[in-house]
Design goal:
By secondary structure, this protein is α+β, with helices and mostly antiparallel strands. It contains 5 helices and 13 strands. The strands form 5 sheets. Strands 3-6-7-8-11 form a 5-stranded mixed beta sheet. It has a two-stranded antiparallel sheet with strand order 1-2. It has a two-stranded antiparallel sheet with strand order 4-5.
Length: about 230
Amino acid sequence: MTTIQPIETRYAGHRFRSRLEARWAVFMDHLGIPWDYEPQGYVVDGTPYLPDFLVRPGEEGQFWLEIKGVCPTEEEVAKAQGLASGTKIPAFIYWAKVEPPAPDLSHLTEEQVHGADQGGYIWTDDYGWREYPTLPPAWQIGLVPTAFRLNPSGKPAKTKSGFHWWTECTFCGHVRLSLNGQQGWCPAFDRMQDEEFNRSVGRIYPQFGHRTARVLAAYDAARSARFEHGQSGA
């Protein structure tokens, strides 16, 4: 029976176990995101575990990043949950391709993002039948989940995959993995007067940041890296 193994790849002084991992390292370097590759091994529920990346090590908002070529198994999700719980650092298992995971969605209104008009009913003991959205928002149809996010206090049984996308805050340039590519609240907003905030920001949600020029350029750099020409990936 034929066996296939990933090709080990050297980049930035590291020997990566796969070229896919190396491409994500190029992606993060292009965006100025600090990372450490396989910094520490652990024993999770009696099983040795060596996570791929610690992203933004030592910073507020640091997280583990485990790269997979396909959707992980329940055992792999449970192991990553043990890592997050044991280290008190959130962990992502990420299996999306090195390309933008979704089209431009900046035209969507808040109502369209929520998809609240697609309703059904759910029983509640205190009220009876309540209207409840049972169908996904139309814009999510056809999109493929990218990752599991494991919280330090979470449990594998309650975890499901989601649309976690590399997202840039267009106000401060910070890039992180964010659900549905939402920029969220930026610390820079705290320093703005109301008038400046309304003029410069307008609305916070929905505000997509998964297809900014910097993020798209990082995808291009990661996909086009030629590792056989040296550790630069150029």
